[in-house]
Amino acid sequence: MSLIIRNLSDQLVDLVRDRILSGVVSSEHAIRQDALAAELGVSKIPLREALARLEEEGLVRSQANRGFFVRSLSAAEAQEVYELRIKLEPDATALAALHATADDHAHAIETLDTLDHVTDEHGDGVGAFNRAFHRALFRPCGQPITVSILERLQVLSERYVRVHLEPLGRDERANEEHHQLLEAWLARDADKISVLVDAHIRKTLDDLRQQLVDD
Amino acid sequence: MSLIIRNLSDQLVDLVRDRILSGVVSSEHAIRQDALAAELGVSKIPLREALARLEEEGLVRSQANRGFFVRSLSAAEAQEVYELRIKLEPDATALAALHATADDHAHAIETLDTLDHVTDEHGDGVGAFNRAFHRALFRPCGQPITVSILERLQVLSERYVRVHLEPLGRDERANEEHHQLLEAWLARDADKISVLVDAHIRKTLDDLRQQLVDD
DNA sequence: GTATCATATACCGTATACGATCCGAAGCTT
DNA sequence: AAGCTTCGGATCGTATACGGTATATGATAC
To answer: Which of A205, A214, A204 is nearest to A171 (CA)?
Structure first.
């Protein structure tokens, strides 16, 4: 796929991000840089560069001479993230549908297909594929900054999905909505897409809210 | 002001960002890491961490084994940045007005005051103070992610203001709008603020568009 | 005269090593 | 016994050093 050569820091960003999303590294106590670097078989320098990037993404925060901490989850942040997605993602996805090429279409179809398979088999790690699907839909919008912001928001929102929604198991409603959404997207029906994405995010937020008060 | 201790990387982010915004480092050929580090009296490691952060902000891009490049300006990006600000900044500023404390009020007033003085004296470097004023208005909104996104967008938009608008000299219209905006903000008139911010950003974008076609 | 290849140089990217800072435990004082 | 002070270990942050890669220059073949 990607023939482009990526340096170690860039690869570590993805690695460490996945670790944080998986909940492997616990929040609220510092990341041992030496230990993690040794475990990943690299040195501290590229790891620190990766952590610096992740801080900009909002996954970790750094305290001077204290190190990097995984940011803790909060209901307020969940609310904020989803409200931001509601403001940006519908338009971006609709615009992307208008710009999408045949390759983009193929990629979106393939992504939803794998998402379905993963959902059928086991409920674990669905978040990453869910994220990949939504990303495939808004990525061709041709607006690089919007894409980067949305990707960041997707990552942040995935943490909440993993913790609060994923344990509930297969979600037929979301499944259904994904297929409707893809259909409208492939048909380049901008207005319908905008409405569907908006509704889809809102419903996820509602589920999340309900789950959050139940804790 | 800030009693918090910041490590070298964090300070370098601001330093290098200012350099890029000032146009000191030219776009489209790589940043000499060793040279810049030596000039700033630091080593490469914290400089690279700062550059990694600035890449996440969208000011530079990195190519593997080629180094960091200042991202070039484009009319499309300008348009995108301002559209994003229009989607997010009015609501955030209105919300901030509702949450603002007495200290926030004092800070906003002070910021506009210095902006006025700077504008009177010389047209150079107004961008930074303009950015500080707008930031003072949306910062108290209590939504950290929104704030970080808006700050990033401010930085990106400032580049265009510096290049295309600042050379025109003092802008009475913007000046007037700032004072109206602050008045409504201090009065916590959310609806009025929202309208004013929207209009202010749109007008700046219009000026920018006109200037861009004149190149 | 042009194109291609080889060599050299400069630079980036990473590993190793050292100094600075912070947290925790032991000892002392009141 | 409780609180403050001091000391030690551990960890973070930075500087120095080295190997790998890309670009530029010059020579040679066609």
So the answer is: A204
- Is A133 in contact with A185 (CB distance < 8 Å)? no
Tokens matching residue B30: 């790589």
Task: Dig out the tokens for B147 from the structure.
Answer: 């704030």
Please state, in angstroms and rounded to a whole number, the distance separating the CA atoms of residues A59 and A72.
9
CA-CA distance, B95 to B99, in Å (whole number)?
7
Query: Which residues fall within 8 angstroms of residue B202, CB to CB, at 6 or more apart?
Result: B82, B86
DSSP state of B59: S
d(C-alpha A32, C-alpha A9), whole Å: 17
**Angstrom distances, CA of residue B145 to CA of B67, B87, B152:** 29, 15, 11
Interior/surface letters A139-171, b for 16+ CB within 10 angstroms, e for the rest: bbbebebbbebbbbbbbbbbbbbbbbbbeeeeb
Measure, in angstroms, how far nucleotide C14 C1' is from residue B59 CA. 24
**For the segment A120-132, what is each residue's pLDDT rounded down to a tens digit?**
766 567 888 999 9
pTM: 0.93
What residues pair up with B68 in beta bridges, in sequence order? Answer: B62
Classify A175 in phi/psi space as left (phi over 0), alpha (psi -120 to 50) or beta: alpha
Query: Is residue A157's pLDDT more than 70?
Result: yes
**Taking a C-beta distance cutoff of 8 angstroms, is the pair A72, A27 a contact?**
yes
Query: In the prediction, which pLDDT does A139 show?
Result: 97
Probe site for chain A from B56, B60, B63, B95 (most A CB atoms < 10 A): B56
d(CA B7, CA B50): 11
Q: Token pair for residue B26?
A: 């030219």
Determine contact: B81 vs chain A, CB below 8 A: yes
Closest of A133, A210, A118, A202 to residue A164, by C-alpha:
A210
Write out the two tokens for A165. Answer: 């929604």
How far apart, in Å, are the Cα atoms of A160 and each of A27, A62, A104, A204, B65?
14, 21, 28, 10, 36
Mutate to test the interface with B, among A86, A143, A151 (most CBs of B within 10 A): A143
pLDDT digits (tens, 9 = 90+) for A51-77: 999 999 999 999 888 889 999 999 999
CA nearest to A65 within chain B: B7
pLDDT at A4: 57
Smallest CA–CA distance from B149 into chain A, residue = A149
